[in-house]
Amino acid sequence: MNKDQFIKATGITPALADKWYQCIVDTMKEFGIDTPKRQAHFLAQIGTESNGFRSVQESLNYSVNGLQIFGSRLTEPQRQQLGRKPGELALSPARQEAIANIVYGGRYGNNQNGDGWKYRGRGLKQITFKDNYSACGKALNLDLVANPDLLLQDLNAARSAGWFWKDNNCNQFADAGDVKGLTRRINGGFNGLQDRIDRTNKAEAVLK
């Protein structure tokens, strides 16, 4: 995959391609994402996860209705209290932090006050939860538990996505063309499924 193919497969700007191309190529080589089909699915999934390669840190700037994505982890009064109201441009950092600590707290290693916010999604895949930061850090030889912001660095952001892909056997879904199964493995549900399908079709048309 050359840089021009990368631009066409992802639909990103040349400036973003300059930022990400080599990191992505190196990551795919390191983690066995080694066929056009696998590469197309990988680019599509991380494209959705990162809002088109524009974000490597989770935003919790949710509207009241948007917070329904977290289901029963937030009560209706909590959604009304913490969610973005009509006319508000963005939630304050304090309200975003409160959301993260409620919805991510008390599971997957997030046992201390503030762990939900500390270990919110980062990297092109949006690695989340202390247990995942720990496992990813061991694999990449980074102390992500002590310094989760290391995943905001370009190469680490890409490699963390590659690690997750390999560790969760995502190639099997890509090989089968199973976008729904792959989305569930990566996202835990089907959030953004149509966007993932559209991105996959676009990438496969370029990388075939």
From TrEMBL:
Residues 112-170 form the Glycoside hydrolase family 19 catalytic domain. Keywords: Hydrolase. GO terms for biological process: cell wall macromolecule catabolic process; chitin catabolic process. It comes from the Bacteria. GO terms for molecular function: chitinase activity. Transmembrane segments: none annotated. This is Glycoside hydrolase family 19 protein. The lineage of its organism: Bacteria, Pseudomonadati, Pseudomonadota, Gammaproteobacteria, Enterobacterales.
